[in-house]
Amino acid sequence: MLQGELQSKRRYPGVKLKITPLGGMGKVTQNMFMYEYEKEILIIDCGIGFPDSYMPGVDILIPDISYLLKKIEAGSTVVGMILTHGHDDHIGALPYLMPTLPDFPIYGSSLTAGFAEQRMKGGKVDKVVNVVKDNTDIKIGSH
Predict the structure, then answer these.
(1) What pLDDT does residue 57 have?
(2) Among 7, 64, 89, 98, which is disulfide-ready with 47 (CB 3.0 to 4.6 Å)?
(3) Under DSSP, is residue 31 helix (H, G, I), strand (E, B) or coil?
(4) Do residues 87 and 29 make contact, with C-beta atoms less than 8 angstroms apart?
């Protein structure tokens, strides 16, 4: 059990929200988090990382989504993805990971949506990012 999960269970015993970093934890890059509530998953960001000098021949790093794929196989549903902004460490892994994931809506600001769609098209992924305007409420999932 993750330390944050243990603390959450002590403070909020009835809450079933679980936040899992798939990348970006302790690093500036490779950002990707999943928020689980019951059988629904919301993904935040999908970024690349940059290799260190001790990784010759490696061009980019992508988040490890094996845990996410196991949750999907076990019956969880990805209800959407939110892109926080358009830097590569938040959108750069989209063309690499989207082909392995089921179809779900992606959300971001107008600028972020444009960057993300261009990034995906460069990787031969045809996916629309839903534009969310400032101060607009959206409902993602059933809760």
Answers:
(1) 92
(2) 89
(3) coil
(4) no
Assess contact for 67 and 32: CB atoms under 8 A. Answer: no
Neighbours of 50 (CB within 10 A): 16
Distance CA 6, CA 106 (A): 30
Decide: 100 and 65 in contact? Cβ < 8 Å: yes
Q: What is the pLDDT of residue 118?
A: 97
Close Cβ partners of 66 (under 8 Å, ≥ 6 residues apart): none
pLDDT at 114: 97
Low-confidence ranges of the chain (pLDDT < 70): 1-12
Q: What global pTM score does this model have? A: 0.87
* Token pair belonging to 68: 């996410």
As given in the structure block, the two tokens for residue 32 are: 């990707």
Answer yes or no: are the C-beta atoms of 70 and 52 closer than 8 Å.
no
